[in-house]
Amino acid sequence: MEQELLRILRTLDSPAHLTQAHARLLAAGLAATPRLLPALGVPPNGFTFTFLLRACALLGLPRPCGCVHGQIVRCGFGSDVFVQNALMDVYYRCGGGGAGGVGAARQVFDEMVDKDVVSWNSIVGVYMSSGDATGAMGLFEAMPERNVVSWNTVVAGFARTGDMVTARTVFDRMPSRNAVSWNLMISGYATSGDVEAARSVFDRMDQKDVVSWTAMVSAYAKIGDLDTAKELFDHMPVKNLVSWNAMITGYNHNSRYDEALRTFQLMMLEGRFRPDEATLVSVVSACAQLGSVEYCNWISSFIGKSNTHLTVALGNALIDMFAKCGDVGRAQSIFYKMETRCIITWTTMISGFAFNGLCREALLVYNNMCREGVELDGTVFIAALAACTHGGLLQEGWSIFNEMVEQYNIQPRMEHYGALEGRWDGVIGARTSMRNWGIEKVPGSSLIQVGSEVHEFLAKDTRHERRKEIYETVDGLMALMRHTEQTPWGLFVASIVVIQCLIGQQLCKSNMGKGIFPVVLQLYHAEVAVLMSRCCFIVTTQTRMNFTFVRAGGKDSHWTKWWSQLTVAIIILGALFYLLCSPKLEQGSEAGLLLLLGGAEDSLASAQSSWSSF
DNA sequence: ATAGGGTTAG
Protein backbone atom coordinates (compact mmCIF):
# COMPACT_ATOMS: atom_id res chain seq x y z
CA MET A 1 0.00 0.00 0.00
CA GLU A 2 2.66 2.48 1.04
CA GLN A 3 4.93 1.43 -1.81
CA GLU A 4 2.08 1.83 -4.27
CA LEU A 5 1.24 5.33 -3.03
CA LEU A 6 4.88 6.32 -3.19
CA ARG A 7 5.07 5.17 -6.81
CA ILE A 8 1.96 7.22 -7.70
CA LEU A 9 3.28 10.30 -5.93
CA ARG A 10 6.53 10.13 -7.91
CA THR A 11 4.63 10.24 -11.19
CA LEU A 12 2.88 13.51 -10.34
CA ASP A 13 4.42 16.50 -12.05
CA SER A 14 2.18 19.51 -11.56
CA PRO A 15 1.61 21.47 -8.34
CA ALA A 16 -2.16 21.09 -8.77
CA HIS A 17 -1.95 17.30 -8.82
CA LEU A 18 0.36 17.39 -5.87
CA THR A 19 -2.10 19.48 -3.88
CA GLN A 20 -4.91 17.08 -4.78
CA ALA A 21 -2.86 14.09 -3.71
CA HIS A 22 -1.93 15.85 -0.47
CA ALA A 23 -5.59 16.53 0.27
CA ARG A 24 -6.49 12.88 -0.32
CA LEU A 25 -3.68 11.72 1.93
CA LEU A 26 -4.81 14.12 4.63
CA ALA A 27 -8.37 12.84 4.36
CA ALA A 28 -7.11 9.27 4.61
CA GLY A 29 -5.04 10.17 7.66
CA LEU A 30 -1.83 9.16 5.94
CA ALA A 31 -0.12 12.52 5.52
CA ALA A 32 2.10 12.16 8.57
CA THR A 33 3.50 8.78 7.50
CA PRO A 34 7.26 9.30 7.60
CA ARG A 35 7.91 7.86 4.15
CA LEU A 36 5.04 9.59 2.35
CA LEU A 37 5.46 13.09 3.73
CA PRO A 38 8.86 13.77 2.15
CA ALA A 39 7.58 12.35 -1.13
CA LEU A 40 5.08 15.24 -1.37
CA GLY A 41 8.17 17.17 -2.37
CA VAL A 42 8.12 20.37 -0.40
CA PRO A 43 11.75 21.50 -0.27
CA PRO A 44 13.16 22.90 2.99
CA ASN A 45 14.12 26.54 3.13
CA GLY A 46 15.95 28.72 5.62
CA PHE A 47 12.92 28.91 7.89
CA THR A 48 12.66 25.12 8.01
CA PHE A 49 16.09 24.92 9.50
CA THR A 50 15.84 27.82 11.91
CA PHE A 51 12.68 26.30 13.38
CA LEU A 52 14.24 22.86 13.45
CA LEU A 53 17.27 24.28 15.24
CA ARG A 54 15.07 26.05 17.74
CA ALA A 55 13.45 22.71 18.54
CA CYS A 56 16.90 21.17 19.06
CA ALA A 57 17.85 24.01 21.38
CA LEU A 58 14.70 23.50 23.45
CA LEU A 59 15.49 19.81 23.78
CA GLY A 60 19.09 20.65 24.64
CA LEU A 61 20.34 17.52 22.89
CA PRO A 62 23.63 17.67 21.00
CA ARG A 63 23.00 14.63 18.77
CA PRO A 64 20.03 15.95 16.73
CA CYS A 65 21.97 19.21 16.32
CA GLY A 66 24.67 17.31 14.49
CA CYS A 67 22.12 15.60 12.21
CA VAL A 68 20.40 18.87 11.42
CA HIS A 69 23.77 20.45 10.74
CA GLY A 70 24.48 17.69 8.24
CA GLN A 71 21.14 18.26 6.51
CA ILE A 72 21.82 22.00 6.41
CA VAL A 73 25.07 21.46 4.57
CA ARG A 74 23.52 18.83 2.28
CA CYS A 75 20.60 21.07 1.35
CA GLY A 76 22.89 23.94 0.50
CA PHE A 77 22.29 26.19 3.50
CA GLY A 78 25.91 26.01 4.62
CA SER A 79 26.40 29.69 3.92
CA ASP A 80 22.93 31.05 4.72
CA VAL A 81 23.64 33.67 7.34
CA PHE A 82 20.27 33.26 9.10
CA VAL A 83 20.67 29.51 9.40
CA GLN A 84 24.28 29.78 10.48
CA ASN A 85 23.46 32.30 13.20
CA ALA A 86 20.80 29.97 14.56
CA LEU A 87 23.23 27.06 14.36
CA MET A 88 25.80 28.93 16.40
CA ASP A 89 23.25 29.63 19.12
CA VAL A 90 22.11 26.00 19.20
CA TYR A 91 25.62 24.60 19.46
CA TYR A 92 26.30 26.88 22.40
CA ARG A 93 23.12 25.89 24.23
CA CYS A 94 23.53 22.19 23.63
CA GLY A 95 27.01 22.42 25.09
CA GLY A 96 25.35 23.23 28.41
CA GLY A 97 26.77 26.74 28.50
CA GLY A 98 30.22 25.38 29.22
CA ALA A 99 33.54 25.55 27.40
CA GLY A 100 32.48 22.81 24.97
CA GLY A 101 29.51 24.87 23.83
CA VAL A 102 31.66 27.96 23.41
CA GLY A 103 34.16 26.00 21.32
CA ALA A 104 31.46 24.58 19.06
CA ALA A 105 29.81 27.98 18.58
CA ARG A 106 33.19 29.53 17.84
CA GLN A 107 33.87 26.89 15.21
CA VAL A 108 30.59 27.66 13.44
CA PHE A 109 31.43 31.35 13.64
CA ASP A 110 34.95 30.89 12.23
CA GLU A 111 33.68 28.76 9.36
CA MET A 112 30.99 31.24 8.33
CA VAL A 113 31.59 32.70 4.90
CA ASP A 114 29.36 35.72 5.42
CA LYS A 115 29.15 37.21 8.87
CA ASP A 116 26.71 39.98 9.71
CA VAL A 117 26.30 42.09 12.85
CA VAL A 118 24.02 39.48 14.33
CA SER A 119 26.71 36.82 13.96
CA TRP A 120 29.19 39.04 15.76
CA ASN A 121 26.67 39.97 18.44
CA SER A 122 25.83 36.32 19.00
CA ILE A 123 29.43 35.21 19.44
CA VAL A 124 30.11 38.10 21.81
CA GLY A 125 27.02 37.08 23.78
CA VAL A 126 28.20 33.47 23.87
CA TYR A 127 31.55 34.47 25.36
CA MET A 128 29.87 36.84 27.82
CA SER A 129 27.37 34.34 29.11
CA SER A 130 30.03 31.65 29.47
CA GLY A 131 31.82 34.03 31.83
CA ASP A 132 34.73 34.83 29.51
CA ALA A 133 34.53 38.63 29.53
CA THR A 134 38.07 39.02 28.22
CA GLY A 135 37.36 36.86 25.18
CA ALA A 136 34.09 38.70 24.61
CA MET A 137 35.77 42.09 24.74
CA GLY A 138 38.48 40.93 22.32
CA LEU A 139 35.81 40.00 19.79
CA PHE A 140 33.86 43.16 20.52
CA GLU A 141 36.87 45.35 19.75
CA ALA A 142 37.48 43.38 16.54
CA MET A 143 33.95 43.89 15.22
CA PRO A 144 33.79 45.50 11.79
CA GLU A 145 30.59 47.31 12.73
CA ARG A 146 28.58 47.65 15.92
CA ASN A 147 24.97 48.41 16.56
CA VAL A 148 23.15 49.17 19.78
CA VAL A 149 22.60 45.46 20.42
CA SER A 150 26.36 44.84 20.35
CA TRP A 151 26.84 47.42 23.09
CA ASN A 152 23.89 46.12 25.07
CA THR A 153 25.23 42.57 24.91
CA VAL A 154 28.46 43.71 26.55
CA VAL A 155 26.68 45.81 29.17
CA ALA A 156 24.39 42.87 29.93
CA GLY A 157 27.38 40.57 30.33
CA PHE A 158 29.11 42.77 32.88
CA ALA A 159 25.87 43.54 34.68
CA ARG A 160 25.12 39.82 35.02
CA THR A 161 28.43 39.14 36.72
CA GLY A 162 27.83 42.07 39.06
CA ASP A 163 30.68 44.12 37.61
CA MET A 164 28.75 47.36 37.50
CA VAL A 165 31.89 49.50 37.33
CA THR A 166 32.84 48.07 33.93
CA ALA A 167 29.20 47.97 32.84
CA ARG A 168 29.02 51.67 33.62
CA THR A 169 32.20 52.39 31.67
CA VAL A 170 30.83 50.63 28.60
CA PHE A 171 27.44 52.31 29.03
CA ASP A 172 29.10 55.73 29.13
CA ARG A 173 31.08 54.92 25.98
CA MET A 174 27.94 54.04 23.97
CA PRO A 175 27.40 56.21 20.91
CA SER A 176 23.64 55.83 21.24
CA ARG A 177 21.42 54.12 23.78
CA ASN A 178 17.94 52.69 23.69
CA ALA A 179 15.54 51.72 26.47
CA VAL A 180 17.16 48.30 26.77
CA SER A 181 20.54 49.88 27.54
CA TRP A 182 19.09 51.92 30.38
CA ASN A 183 17.07 49.01 31.71
CA LEU A 184 20.18 46.85 31.79
CA MET A 185 21.84 49.39 34.05
CA ILE A 186 18.78 49.58 36.30
CA SER A 187 18.49 45.83 36.74
CA GLY A 188 22.26 45.47 37.09
CA TYR A 189 22.40 47.94 39.95
CA ALA A 190 19.30 46.39 41.47
CA THR A 191 20.73 42.87 41.53
CA SER A 192 23.99 44.13 42.97
CA GLY A 193 21.91 45.61 45.78
CA ASP A 194 22.52 49.26 44.94
CA VAL A 195 18.97 50.56 44.68
CA GLU A 196 20.09 54.17 44.96
CA ALA A 197 22.18 53.84 41.80
CA ALA A 198 19.35 52.01 40.04
CA ARG A 199 17.01 54.81 41.02
CA SER A 200 19.29 57.54 39.75
CA VAL A 201 19.57 55.79 36.37
CA PHE A 202 15.80 55.45 36.35
CA ASP A 203 15.32 59.14 37.18
CA ARG A 204 17.74 60.25 34.47
CA MET A 205 16.01 58.11 31.86
CA ASP A 206 13.59 59.95 29.61
CA GLN A 207 12.17 56.97 27.74
CA LYS A 208 11.04 54.88 30.72
CA ASP A 209 8.99 51.92 29.62
CA VAL A 210 7.06 49.25 31.46
CA VAL A 211 10.26 47.22 31.94
CA SER A 212 12.04 50.12 33.66
CA TRP A 213 9.15 50.65 36.06
CA THR A 214 8.85 46.94 36.81
CA ALA A 215 12.57 46.62 37.42
CA MET A 216 12.38 49.46 39.96
CA VAL A 217 9.36 47.93 41.67
CA SER A 218 11.15 44.63 42.18
CA ALA A 219 14.36 46.43 43.17
CA TYR A 220 12.60 48.16 46.05
CA ALA A 221 10.75 45.00 46.97
CA LYS A 222 14.04 43.11 47.09
CA ILE A 223 15.48 45.42 49.75
CA GLY A 224 12.24 45.28 51.70
CA ASP A 225 11.08 48.79 50.92
CA LEU A 226 7.58 47.78 49.97
CA ASP A 227 6.14 51.24 50.51
CA THR A 228 8.24 52.67 47.71
CA ALA A 229 7.67 49.58 45.59
CA LYS A 230 3.92 49.95 45.99
CA GLU A 231 4.05 53.67 45.31
CA LEU A 232 5.92 53.14 42.05
CA PHE A 233 3.59 50.29 41.14
CA ASP A 234 0.57 52.53 41.67
CA HIS A 235 2.09 55.31 39.56
CA MET A 236 3.15 53.18 36.62
CA PRO A 237 1.70 54.65 33.44
CA VAL A 238 1.36 51.17 31.94
CA LYS A 239 1.23 47.85 33.73
CA ASN A 240 1.51 44.42 32.22
CA LEU A 241 1.34 40.92 33.65
CA VAL A 242 5.01 40.94 34.61
CA SER A 243 4.51 44.13 36.63
CA TRP A 244 1.73 42.47 38.61
CA ASN A 245 3.87 39.38 39.10
CA ALA A 246 6.73 41.55 40.37
CA MET A 247 4.48 43.19 42.96
CA ILE A 248 3.04 39.85 44.08
CA THR A 249 6.46 38.21 44.47
CA GLY A 250 7.69 41.34 46.20
CA TYR A 251 5.11 40.78 48.92
CA ASN A 252 6.01 37.11 49.05
CA HIS A 253 9.68 37.83 49.58
CA ASN A 254 8.82 40.04 52.50
CA SER A 255 6.55 37.46 54.10
CA ARG A 256 3.45 39.54 53.42
CA TYR A 257 1.50 36.72 51.90
CA ASP A 258 -1.94 38.13 52.57
CA GLU A 259 -1.04 41.27 50.65
CA ALA A 260 0.36 39.14 47.85
CA LEU A 261 -3.03 37.46 47.58
CA ARG A 262 -4.84 40.78 47.78
CA THR A 263 -2.73 42.11 44.91
CA PHE A 264 -3.55 39.02 42.89
CA GLN A 265 -7.25 39.54 43.56
CA LEU A 266 -6.98 43.16 42.44
CA MET A 267 -5.40 42.00 39.23
CA MET A 268 -8.21 39.53 38.66
CA LEU A 269 -10.82 42.20 39.43
CA GLU A 270 -9.21 44.51 36.91
CA GLY A 271 -9.58 41.68 34.45
CA ARG A 272 -7.02 42.84 31.94
CA PHE A 273 -4.53 40.01 32.36
CA ARG A 274 -4.80 36.28 32.57
CA PRO A 275 -2.45 34.87 35.22
CA ASP A 276 0.39 32.88 33.74
CA GLU A 277 2.53 30.21 35.31
CA ALA A 278 4.74 32.70 37.16
CA THR A 279 1.66 34.33 38.71
CA LEU A 280 0.22 31.04 39.79
CA VAL A 281 3.48 29.78 41.25
CA SER A 282 3.72 32.90 43.40
CA VAL A 283 0.09 32.80 44.45
CA VAL A 284 0.24 29.11 45.29
CA SER A 285 3.33 29.63 47.39
CA ALA A 286 1.65 32.50 49.23
CA CYS A 287 -1.30 30.20 49.96
CA ALA A 288 1.13 27.54 51.16
CA GLN A 289 2.75 29.94 53.58
CA LEU A 290 -0.61 31.07 54.93
CA GLY A 291 -1.76 27.49 55.26
CA SER A 292 -5.33 28.60 54.81
CA VAL A 293 -7.50 25.78 53.53
CA GLU A 294 -9.99 28.14 51.89
CA TYR A 295 -7.32 29.93 49.87
CA CYS A 296 -5.73 26.63 48.90
CA ASN A 297 -9.03 25.23 47.69
CA TRP A 298 -9.86 28.39 45.84
CA ILE A 299 -6.59 28.60 43.97
CA SER A 300 -6.47 24.91 43.17
CA SER A 301 -9.96 24.94 41.73
CA PHE A 302 -9.04 28.07 39.79
CA ILE A 303 -6.03 26.28 38.32
CA GLY A 304 -8.15 23.26 37.55
CA LYS A 305 -10.74 25.36 35.73
CA SER A 306 -8.24 27.46 33.81
CA ASN A 307 -6.75 24.37 32.18
CA THR A 308 -3.22 25.46 32.99
CA HIS A 309 -0.46 23.10 32.04
CA LEU A 310 1.11 21.53 35.09
CA THR A 311 4.74 22.58 34.74
CA VAL A 312 7.48 21.49 37.11
CA ALA A 313 7.56 24.76 39.05
CA LEU A 314 3.79 24.90 39.43
CA GLY A 315 3.62 21.25 40.41
CA ASN A 316 6.30 21.75 43.06
CA ALA A 317 4.47 24.74 44.47
CA LEU A 318 1.17 22.84 44.57
CA ILE A 319 2.70 19.83 46.32
CA ASP A 320 4.14 22.15 48.92
CA MET A 321 0.86 23.98 49.34
CA PHE A 322 -1.30 20.89 49.81
CA ALA A 323 1.21 19.33 52.17
CA LYS A 324 1.40 22.50 54.26
CA CYS A 325 -2.36 22.67 54.70
CA GLY A 326 -2.47 19.06 55.70
CA ASP A 327 -3.92 17.53 52.55
CA VAL A 328 -1.03 15.25 51.78
CA GLY A 329 -3.25 13.05 49.62
CA ARG A 330 -3.78 15.82 47.12
CA ALA A 331 -0.11 16.67 47.31
CA GLN A 332 0.64 13.11 46.33
CA SER A 333 -1.85 13.09 43.48
CA ILE A 334 -0.18 16.20 42.03
CA PHE A 335 3.13 14.40 42.41
CA TYR A 336 1.86 11.47 40.37
CA LYS A 337 0.25 13.68 37.75
CA MET A 338 3.49 15.48 36.96
CA GLU A 339 5.06 14.42 33.70
CA THR A 340 8.52 15.62 34.61
CA ARG A 341 9.95 15.99 38.07
CA CYS A 342 13.07 17.63 39.32
CA ILE A 343 15.02 17.23 42.54
CA ILE A 344 12.87 19.90 44.16
CA THR A 345 9.76 17.85 43.40
CA TRP A 346 11.17 14.87 45.26
CA THR A 347 12.44 17.00 48.13
CA THR A 348 9.09 18.74 48.50
CA MET A 349 7.19 15.44 48.48
CA ILE A 350 9.50 13.88 51.08
CA SER A 351 9.26 16.88 53.39
CA GLY A 352 5.53 17.06 52.71
CA PHE A 353 5.00 13.57 54.06
CA ALA A 354 7.32 14.18 56.99
CA PHE A 355 5.58 17.46 57.76
CA ASN A 356 2.35 15.52 58.15
CA GLY A 357 3.94 12.87 60.32
CA LEU A 358 3.88 10.23 57.55
CA CYS A 359 7.54 9.37 57.84
CA ARG A 360 7.33 5.87 56.40
CA GLU A 361 5.69 7.28 53.28
CA ALA A 362 8.42 9.88 53.09
CA LEU A 363 10.98 7.10 53.07
CA LEU A 364 9.06 5.24 50.35
CA VAL A 365 9.31 8.34 48.19
CA TYR A 366 13.00 8.48 48.98
CA ASN A 367 13.42 4.86 47.89
CA ASN A 368 11.49 5.41 44.66
CA MET A 369 13.67 8.39 43.94
CA CYS A 370 16.83 6.34 44.38
CA ARG A 371 15.42 3.63 42.11
CA GLU A 372 14.68 6.13 39.36
CA GLY A 373 18.31 7.16 39.29
CA VAL A 374 17.62 10.83 39.87
CA GLU A 375 20.70 12.92 40.47
CA LEU A 376 20.57 13.74 44.17
CA ASP A 377 21.81 16.80 45.99
CA GLY A 378 22.63 17.52 49.60
CA THR A 379 19.28 19.12 50.27
CA VAL A 380 17.12 16.12 49.52
CA PHE A 381 19.11 14.24 52.14
CA ILE A 382 18.32 16.87 54.73
CA ALA A 383 14.65 16.20 54.01
CA ALA A 384 15.09 12.42 54.13
CA LEU A 385 17.14 12.52 57.34
CA ALA A 386 14.68 14.90 58.97
CA ALA A 387 11.87 12.49 58.03
CA CYS A 388 13.71 9.66 59.79
CA THR A 389 14.42 11.69 62.90
CA HIS A 390 10.90 12.98 62.97
CA GLY A 391 9.49 9.46 62.89
CA GLY A 392 12.01 8.09 65.35
CA LEU A 393 13.51 5.91 62.61
CA LEU A 394 17.07 6.39 63.75
CA GLN A 395 18.47 3.26 62.14
CA GLU A 396 17.05 4.16 58.75
CA GLY A 397 18.42 7.63 59.24
CA TRP A 398 21.90 6.30 59.75
CA SER A 399 21.77 4.01 56.77
CA ILE A 400 20.60 6.89 54.58
CA PHE A 401 23.37 9.03 55.98
CA ASN A 402 25.90 6.35 55.06
CA GLU A 403 24.41 5.96 51.58
CA MET A 404 24.72 9.67 51.14
CA VAL A 405 28.39 9.71 52.00
CA GLU A 406 29.52 6.45 50.45
CA GLN A 407 27.20 5.91 47.51
CA TYR A 408 26.41 9.43 46.42
CA ASN A 409 29.64 11.09 47.52
CA ILE A 410 27.88 13.98 49.15
CA GLN A 411 29.86 15.81 51.80
CA PRO A 412 27.84 15.95 55.01
CA ARG A 413 27.09 19.51 56.06
CA MET A 414 26.13 20.63 59.48
CA GLU A 415 22.47 20.61 58.44
CA HIS A 416 22.74 16.86 57.97
CA TYR A 417 24.01 16.47 61.51
CA GLY A 418 21.33 18.84 62.66
CA ALA A 419 18.72 16.59 61.06
CA LEU A 420 20.13 13.60 62.91
CA GLU A 421 19.76 14.61 66.51
CA GLY A 422 21.01 11.25 67.75
CA ARG A 423 24.44 12.23 66.57
CA TRP A 424 25.31 14.07 69.72
CA ASP A 425 23.57 11.94 72.28
CA GLY A 426 26.64 9.97 73.15
CA VAL A 427 28.80 13.02 73.34
CA ILE A 428 26.99 15.16 75.81
CA GLY A 429 23.87 13.35 76.89
CA ALA A 430 21.80 16.06 75.38
CA ARG A 431 18.41 14.92 76.44
CA THR A 432 19.43 14.71 80.04
CA SER A 433 21.00 18.10 79.91
CA MET A 434 17.87 19.50 78.37
CA ARG A 435 15.73 18.09 81.06
CA ASN A 436 18.10 19.42 83.68
CA TRP A 437 17.95 22.86 82.23
CA GLY A 438 14.19 22.75 82.11
CA ILE A 439 14.17 23.59 78.44
CA GLU A 440 11.23 21.35 77.72
CA LYS A 441 8.95 23.81 79.42
CA VAL A 442 9.77 26.65 77.15
CA PRO A 443 9.15 25.21 73.70
CA GLY A 444 5.66 24.58 72.53
CA SER A 445 4.57 27.80 74.07
CA SER A 446 3.81 30.17 71.30
CA LEU A 447 1.87 32.55 73.48
CA ILE A 448 3.79 35.12 75.42
CA GLN A 449 2.14 37.58 77.68
CA VAL A 450 3.91 40.84 78.31
CA GLY A 451 2.03 43.17 80.57
CA SER A 452 -1.56 43.05 79.54
CA GLU A 453 -0.85 42.02 75.97
CA VAL A 454 -0.70 38.51 74.65
CA HIS A 455 1.60 37.93 71.71
CA GLU A 456 0.84 34.87 69.73
CA PHE A 457 3.24 33.20 67.37
CA LEU A 458 2.30 30.33 65.13
CA ALA A 459 4.43 28.46 62.65
CA LYS A 460 5.57 30.89 59.97
CA ASP A 461 3.21 33.48 61.28
CA THR A 462 2.46 36.35 58.99
CA ARG A 463 0.23 38.46 61.13
CA HIS A 464 2.60 39.95 63.65
CA GLU A 465 3.20 43.62 62.97
CA ARG A 466 6.97 43.23 63.25
CA ARG A 467 7.17 40.16 61.05
CA LYS A 468 9.46 41.98 58.66
CA GLU A 469 12.08 42.29 61.35
CA ILE A 470 11.48 38.74 62.48
CA TYR A 471 12.12 37.27 59.09
CA GLU A 472 14.91 39.64 58.23
CA THR A 473 16.68 38.77 61.43
CA VAL A 474 16.26 35.06 60.92
CA ASP A 475 17.14 35.22 57.23
CA GLY A 476 20.20 37.28 57.96
CA LEU A 477 21.37 34.87 60.62
CA MET A 478 20.72 31.91 58.41
CA ALA A 479 22.58 33.47 55.53
CA LEU A 480 25.45 34.22 57.82
CA MET A 481 25.40 30.69 59.15
CA ARG A 482 25.49 29.26 55.65
CA HIS A 483 28.23 31.61 54.69
CA THR A 484 30.35 30.80 57.67
CA GLU A 485 29.71 27.11 58.09
CA GLN A 486 32.75 24.98 58.83
CA THR A 487 34.53 27.93 60.42
CA PRO A 488 34.68 29.26 63.96
CA TRP A 489 32.49 32.07 62.77
CA GLY A 490 29.59 29.65 62.74
CA LEU A 491 30.06 29.34 66.45
CA PHE A 492 30.25 33.05 66.77
CA VAL A 493 26.88 33.51 65.12
CA ALA A 494 25.31 30.66 67.02
CA SER A 495 26.46 32.14 70.26
CA ILE A 496 24.90 35.45 69.38
CA VAL A 497 21.58 33.74 68.86
CA VAL A 498 21.76 31.88 72.11
CA ILE A 499 22.72 34.95 74.06
CA GLN A 500 19.98 36.93 72.43
CA CYS A 501 17.46 34.31 73.40
CA LEU A 502 18.64 34.22 76.95
CA ILE A 503 18.64 37.96 77.32
CA GLY A 504 15.27 38.16 75.66
CA GLN A 505 13.80 35.85 78.23
CA GLN A 506 15.35 37.78 81.06
CA LEU A 507 14.21 41.06 79.68
CA CYS A 508 10.69 39.80 79.29
CA LYS A 509 10.72 38.56 82.80
CA SER A 510 12.06 41.61 84.53
CA ASN A 511 10.42 44.29 82.48
CA MET A 512 6.89 43.21 82.00
CA GLY A 513 4.78 46.04 80.79
CA LYS A 514 7.52 48.60 80.47
CA GLY A 515 8.20 48.44 76.79
CA ILE A 516 11.00 46.09 76.36
CA PHE A 517 12.96 45.22 73.29
CA PRO A 518 12.48 46.16 69.69
CA VAL A 519 13.55 42.91 68.14
CA VAL A 520 11.33 39.92 67.76
CA LEU A 521 13.15 36.76 67.00
CA GLN A 522 11.40 33.63 66.01
CA LEU A 523 13.21 30.46 65.11
CA TYR A 524 11.93 27.07 64.13
CA HIS A 525 12.94 23.72 65.33
CA ALA A 526 15.21 22.78 62.45
CA GLU A 527 17.22 25.94 62.59
CA VAL A 528 17.30 25.89 66.34
CA ALA A 529 18.47 22.30 66.32
CA VAL A 530 21.35 23.24 64.08
CA LEU A 531 22.31 26.26 66.09
CA MET A 532 21.89 24.58 69.39
CA SER A 533 23.76 21.47 68.45
CA ARG A 534 26.66 23.76 67.93
CA CYS A 535 26.17 25.37 71.25
CA CYS A 536 26.01 22.09 73.02
CA PHE A 537 22.42 21.22 73.63
CA ILE A 538 19.88 19.60 71.42
CA VAL A 539 16.30 20.34 70.82
CA THR A 540 14.04 17.49 69.94
CA THR A 541 12.95 18.06 66.42
CA GLN A 542 9.38 17.24 67.20
CA THR A 543 9.13 20.34 69.26
CA ARG A 544 8.94 23.66 67.65
CA MET A 545 10.68 26.29 69.65
CA ASN A 546 9.65 29.84 69.55
CA PHE A 547 12.06 32.23 71.07
CA THR A 548 10.49 35.55 71.17
CA PHE A 549 11.34 38.85 72.54
CA VAL A 550 8.39 41.02 72.46
CA ARG A 551 8.01 44.59 73.13
CA ALA A 552 4.84 45.58 74.83
CA GLY A 553 2.61 48.54 74.27
CA GLY A 554 4.31 49.58 71.05
CA LYS A 555 5.71 52.80 72.46
CA ASP A 556 9.37 53.65 72.35
CA SER A 557 10.60 54.80 75.71
CA HIS A 558 14.03 55.67 76.93
CA TRP A 559 13.98 52.23 78.51
CA THR A 560 13.78 50.62 75.10
CA LYS A 561 16.85 52.45 73.89
CA TRP A 562 18.75 51.78 77.07
CA TRP A 563 18.00 48.08 76.96
CA SER A 564 18.88 47.84 73.30
CA GLN A 565 22.24 49.39 73.90
CA LEU A 566 22.92 47.20 76.87
CA THR A 567 21.93 44.14 74.88
CA VAL A 568 24.18 44.99 72.00
CA ALA A 569 27.04 45.45 74.43
CA ILE A 570 26.38 42.10 76.07
CA ILE A 571 26.08 40.37 72.72
CA ILE A 572 29.40 41.73 71.60
CA LEU A 573 31.06 40.79 74.88
CA GLY A 574 29.55 37.32 74.73
CA ALA A 575 30.66 36.80 71.19
CA LEU A 576 34.17 37.91 72.06
CA PHE A 577 34.11 35.53 74.97
CA TYR A 578 33.27 32.64 72.66
CA LEU A 579 35.82 33.67 70.13
CA LEU A 580 38.57 33.90 72.71
CA CYS A 581 37.60 30.63 74.32
CA SER A 582 37.44 28.69 71.10
CA PRO A 583 39.79 30.14 68.54
CA LYS A 584 41.23 26.80 67.47
CA LEU A 585 38.10 24.71 67.56
CA GLU A 586 37.77 22.11 64.87
CA GLN A 587 34.21 21.85 63.68
CA GLY A 588 32.57 18.57 64.48
CA SER A 589 35.40 17.29 66.61
CA GLU A 590 34.27 15.89 69.88
CA ALA A 591 37.09 17.50 71.77
CA GLY A 592 36.02 20.83 70.37
CA LEU A 593 32.44 20.26 71.37
CA LEU A 594 33.37 19.31 74.88
CA LEU A 595 35.57 22.35 75.16
CA LEU A 596 32.77 24.52 73.93
CA LEU A 597 30.36 22.83 76.25
CA GLY A 598 32.56 23.75 79.15
CA GLY A 599 32.42 27.37 78.16
CA ALA A 600 28.76 27.45 77.38
CA GLU A 601 27.59 25.57 80.38
CA ASP A 602 28.62 28.36 82.72
CA SER A 603 26.66 31.00 80.90
CA LEU A 604 23.68 28.74 80.43
CA ALA A 605 23.62 27.65 84.02
CA SER A 606 23.08 31.20 85.14
CA ALA A 607 20.11 31.44 82.87
CA GLN A 608 18.69 28.12 83.89
CA SER A 609 16.33 29.53 86.47
CA SER A 610 14.78 31.92 84.03
CA TRP A 611 14.25 29.18 81.45
CA SER A 612 12.50 26.88 83.83
CA SER A 613 10.38 29.46 85.53
CA PHE A 614 9.25 31.07 82.32
C1' DA B 1 17.71 35.76 14.47
C1' DT B 2 21.31 38.97 18.62
C1' DA B 3 20.11 42.76 24.10
C1' DG B 4 16.06 44.27 29.05
C1' DG B 5 11.64 43.33 33.99
C1' DG B 6 8.45 38.66 37.14
C1' DT B 7 8.64 31.94 38.69
C1' DT B 8 8.72 26.73 43.34
C1' DA B 9 11.26 23.19 48.01
C1' DG B 10 14.67 22.76 52.41
TrEMBL record:
GO molecular function: RNA binding
Pfam families per UniProt: PPR
Keywords: Repeat, Transit peptide
Domain of life: Eukaryota
PPR-type repeats, residues: 116-150, 178-212, 240-275, 342-376
Membrane listed as a keyword: no
GO biological process: RNA modification
Name of the protein: Pentatricopeptide repeat-containing protein
Species per Swiss-Prot/TrEMBL record: Oryza punctata
Top-level taxonomy: Eukaryota, Viridiplantae, Streptophyta, Embryophyta, Tracheophyta
